[in-house]
Design a protein that fits this description.
- By secondary structure, the protein is mainly beta.
- It contains 2 helices and 8 strands; from the N terminus they run ααββββββββ.
- Strands 6-5-4-3-2-1-8-7 form an 8-stranded antiparallel sheet, with no helix packed on it.
């Protein structure tokens, strides 16, 4: 017990609970799905490159209010590919809000969604858009 208190990093590395970050870019095609609601529904088709490489498919729901700069979106996507050479899949859940131009975004790995070599993955993703290009930072760990 005393050894574990003195060397927490060593024990964390053995259990895999160290948070890692990888960066890269992705392309996304968004296609409208036709519904009879005031909520926009889109089909997502993504290609990730960098340390996270592969494809993701998903759906997004969005709504803009009558107030300029206020809107919301939620999305689910399922990724299949590789993370630093480890093959498998996992799912992401998105929650984006805009309140009169002030935006916030949370993208989290769905608990227990990892498969194959990505089993036990958890974490979150940051998305940045610069000059029309999409970039990600995936912060992850394995349980």
């Amino acid at each position: 017990m005393c050894l574990q208190l003195l060397l927490p990093q060593a024990f964390a590395k053995e259990s895999g609970n160290i948070m890692h970050s990888v960066t890269g870019s992705f392309d996304v095609k968004i296609s409208p799905a036709e519904d009879e609601t005031s909520v926009g529904r889109m089909i997502l088709d993504k290609s990730y490159s960098g340390a996270l490489s592969g494809k993701a498919k998903g759906q997004m729901l969005s709504h803009r209010t009558e107030v300029q700069g206020s809107a919301a979106y939620v999305a689910l996507e399922h990724f299949e590919g590789e993370l630093k050479g480890k093959k498998g899949s996992f799912s992401l859940v998105h929650k984006g809000l805009m309140d009169k131009g002030v935006s916030s975004l949370q993208v989290n790995i769905v608990a227990d969604s990892g498969t194959k070599e990505l089993l036990g993955i958890s974490g979150n993703m940051e998305i940045k858009i610069e000059d029309g290009k999409h970039f990600y930072v995936l912060n992850y760990q394995f349980d």
